[in-house]
């Protein structure tokens, strides 16, 4: 899973966010320009439809702001999952424009949450809630969708295909986890250039789920300086942030042995 937090992945998230920002800005600009130029045509539209157009513009502006933030803070890519969740709700519940896009967007949301370790605690309860919400989104349009049956069958078919894909991917991940389980869960801090023994003690306290304020107090430092220090450490470890570190290395034993790797090879 650590591949998710590599520099290449973070750069990819930044580039994706930049591309999304450009597209959304262009699309939103075209919508605003159209409303200004053809204002008289929009005035005769039903109020609900006009409100829909305006809400789309507002939503796009919010998304643009989030994507700009992700350009500089790609480790917060959980925001992509939240945006995907919002879009999936909108598409599945209203059946507007392209309702079927709500299904892969919901899958993207779940995948993002899984990567960020959202399901590590209270797993069954959270899975039940997500499944229940998804089913409600599929059934809710029965009250206003004239083609509900046709749309529902297509949505179920798409959901089935995505479920099969997820199943095979999960089985592959399970096999990889079995291979990893044969290895000692040890993180040698000395194997990362730029990290020191003192960094290991800080990371150990993070693994112990201590708050930054508590850790700062233990080293007689400020919380701000500690956050900056840990941010640099997370970058060297390629885990993104605290959540990424805990997701990947929870349960690991931390050591600082400069000769550890050489001794194991001998």
TrEMBL record:
SUPFAM superfamilies per record: C-terminal effector domain of the bipartite response regulators
UniProtKB keywords: Membrane, Transmembrane, Transmembrane helix
Record Gene3D superfamilies: Winged helix-like DNA-binding domain superfamily/Winged helix DNA-binding domain (1.10.10.10)
GO BP annotations listed: regulation of DNA-templated transcription
Domain of life of the source: Bacteria
Transmembrane segments: 53-72, 77-94, 100-120, 127-144, 156-173
Gene Ontology MF terms in the entry: DNA binding
UniProt protein name: HTH luxR-type domain-containing protein
Species whose genome carries this gene: Treponema bryantii
């Amino acid at each position: 899973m650590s591949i998710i937090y590599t520099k290449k992945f973070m750069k990819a998230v930044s580039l994706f966010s930049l591309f999304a920002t450009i597209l959304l800005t262009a699309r939103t600009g075209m919508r605003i320009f159209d409303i200004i130029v053809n204002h008289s045509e929009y005035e005769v539209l039903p109020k609900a439809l006009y409100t829909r157009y305006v809400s789309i513009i507002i939503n796009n502006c919010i998304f643009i702001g989030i994507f700009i933030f992700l350009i500089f803070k790609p480790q917060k890519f959980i925001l992509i999952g939240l945006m995907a969740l919002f879009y999936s709700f909108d598409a599945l519940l209203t059946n507007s424009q392209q309702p079927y896009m709500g299904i892969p967007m919901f899958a993207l949301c779940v995948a993002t949450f899984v990567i960020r370790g959202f399901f590590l605690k209270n797993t069954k309860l959270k899975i039940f809630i997500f499944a229940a919400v998804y089913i409600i989104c599929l059934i809710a349009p029965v009250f206003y969708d004239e083609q509900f049956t046709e749309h529902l069958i297509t949505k179920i078919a798409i959901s089935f295909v995505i479920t099969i894909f997820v199943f095979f991917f999960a089985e592959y991940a399970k096999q990889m986890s079995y291979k990893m389980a044969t290895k000692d869960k040890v993180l040698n801090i000395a194997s990362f250039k730029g990290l020191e023994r003192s960094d290991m003690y800080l990371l150990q306290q993070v693994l112990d789920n201590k708050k930054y304020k508590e850790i700062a107090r233990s080293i007689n430092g400020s919380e701000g300086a500690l956050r900056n220090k840990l941010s640099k450490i997370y970058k060297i470890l390629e885990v993104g942030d605290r959540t990424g570190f805990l997701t990947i290395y929870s349960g690991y034993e931390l050591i600082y042995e400069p000769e550890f790797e050489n001794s194991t090879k001998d």
